[in-house]
């Protein structure tokens, strides 16, 4: 039996993405075969496809390469010594990060240790939206040690990472401020954040006395946001390309600043799934593209204007 995968055969524009047919993979020791329902798209997939960033450097001699780190689906087969799950169980995971990838597949073999069970109250769509973005959000809030009552500014609160970070910070009982375009003001207000329209004025003209900055934009926008901070504020800057610049400037100004690289953590994924299941966290999915329209999906994520997440339906 055969199944489909989406590959990057060479780096370039979204149009380089291709579909290929492979023989159904067989799980090895400790692995399970997952029938992928949804795979979500992250900005790192788009940058890697364009040949940018460290995941592209890692994989430049390994093309064609199957991108994708976020999957949800059902266990199809268990390999030897894989006993955590049974055939038919619903699972999700942040898989193969950073070098292996593989999520843009209809069927993929994954070490069972990379997966988490999806509670019956969580949809496969919501579960696919969570792995990389949700864990980045949770790890950033943890790293910043956000506390009850603190004033937290999250740049780009409407994005894949941002909409989860806003909700986790609010659950910590912080006072959350976030930046977005006019179109997302109401959405972020419904999540409980004070939403600031960056198209109207930069954050530095609207806010002051911020304890913690979670930067999801980087560059000049992040440098401007440093003007909103109170003495000894903490800064976590997530976009890796400008992390050094932002940390250098923040440190010069007397703030404690660091970059961050997300690290897959199935236990943390279970917590996020639990939060969605009990209604403490809501995932926002802007659009689900069929797998054969992956080029449009990449074009959407490349706009940097996605609200929440973009998914690929791998089974349609
Ligand atoms: N270091 C790591 O481990 C790590 C992990 C995950 C992500 N990242 C990086 O973190 C960044 C965010 O990731 P993501 O997945 O959240 O991206 P995303 O989903 O593509 O973010 C899109 C959002 O950004 C907002 N936005 C764009 N320009 C903005 C601006 N100038 N000010 C405020 N908001 C703006 C948009 O809101 P509007 O439409 O309202 O403008 C949109 O909702 C990316 O650079 C990504 O590569 C790094």
UniProtKB/TrEMBL annotation:
CDD domains: MDR_like_2
Pfam families the record matches: ADH_N, ADH_zinc_N_2
UniProt xrefs under InterPro entries: ADH-like_N, ER, GroES-like_sf, Lipid_raft_assoc_Zn_ADH, NAD(P)-bd_dom_sf
GO terms for MF: oxidoreductase activity
Residue ranges annotated for the Enoyl reductase (ER) domain, each copy included: 12-312
Protein name per Swiss-Prot or TrEMBL: NADP-dependent oxidoreductase
Taxonomic source organism: Vibrio qingdaonensis
